[in-house]
Amino acid sequence: MTATVPAPNVAPPLDFTALLSDRARKMTASAIREILKITQEPDVISFAGGLPAPELFPLDDVRAAMDAVMTRYGAAALQYSTTEGHLPLRQFLAERAGITPGHVQIMTGSQQGLDLLGKILISEGDIVLVESPTYLGALQSFQPYGPQYLEMPTDEEGIDVDALEELLKGLKAGGKRAKLLYAIPNFQNPTGRTLSKERRERLVNLTAEHGLLVIEDDPYGQLRFSGEAAPSLYQIALDRVGGNPDHSHIIYSGSFSKTLVPGLRDAWVQAAKPLIEKLVQAKQGADLHTPTLNQMIVTELLPTVLPRQIELIRKAYGERAQDMIRHIKAQFPAGVHHTVPQGGMFLWVTLPEGVDTLPMLARAVERKVAFVPGASFFALGGGHNTMRLSYSNATPQQIERGVKALAETISETVK
Known about the structure:
Radius of gyration: 23 Å
CATH class of the largest domain: Alpha Beta
CATH superfamily of the largest domain: Type I PLP-dependent aspartate aminotransferase-like (Major domain)
Largest sheet: 7 strands, mixed
CATH architecture of the largest domain: 3-Layer(aba) Sandwich
Number of strands: 15
Distance between the termini: 81 Å
Number of domains: 2
CATH topology of the largest domain: Aspartate Aminotransferase, domain 2
Structural class: alpha/beta
Number of helices: 15
């Protein structure tokens, strides 16, 4: 007679959602990342993701730099390294900014820099000022730390500093103060607008008076293809305090992703030493350090390849921006407005009130063209009648066909 084996006492599956931390519950998926999944079909023309043009990548130079690094450093190029970053790379960045290497922290992409800055600066309920609209990746980075967002109005010259001044006065009158201001002064993502020189100076002075920290996110600053360059907020503030970076309230975030190659994920933050020291501690908990080999490769490319790449990219993106604007002017229906960027990778389209570009995206993809609906870039909601277009990773033929398909989609919606 065979003995009966009792059924195992199987516990029900865990409710993983219920076990998430409060911080994890505040995380949201990146709209851009999700949209990029839609546009992987080879016949879809994507004006969505802000992708650098891969045909401009310096493949041979990167290969030669890797060989040179391995020859010079050997096993050290593959070893763990210091959290602060490869010293020759930090020295290059420091000399260019007129500061010391101790004021520079290397990051694994500028997105990590934003996340770690949020971690060390934002407490639950802190007031954080952002442009309207602003980079959705920054909102995604800051959101888990519980900020209270307030939006700063913008126009064709960037942040409306008059409105910012009134906002800060109102907070002070109510016994409140903002903790942090986040801005992209050069060729802003998503609008492509640039903060004017006069407004930069006023913004630096105004925020200093109110004891307000400023994160200046500048991934596109060297990609100017028209107009005159303006000094960074960081440089204006440094001059204001006699060249002492420990007295500056501006935190500068830069990246090599848009000027060399994005896949190496090399970026940096410049800030006062007390902030750098905390970033070092935060980064130790995040990834210990940015990959040693990648930092060494980038450093090898700095003297000759980086300047050449910047000129190549400026020319290519300038031509692509002109192409896109020309076709938009010729084909988009009346009542649709767009920005005219002087550099960077994006322009911003505003449709008539009442139009929602989110459902429009599906119809555009049916015509084999994609964009990013603008509502994702507004911290407090709104912007449903806007969209971001990227021209950086599209050929002239794709721009022509894509704008035509987009114009048809808009026309059937705006009837």
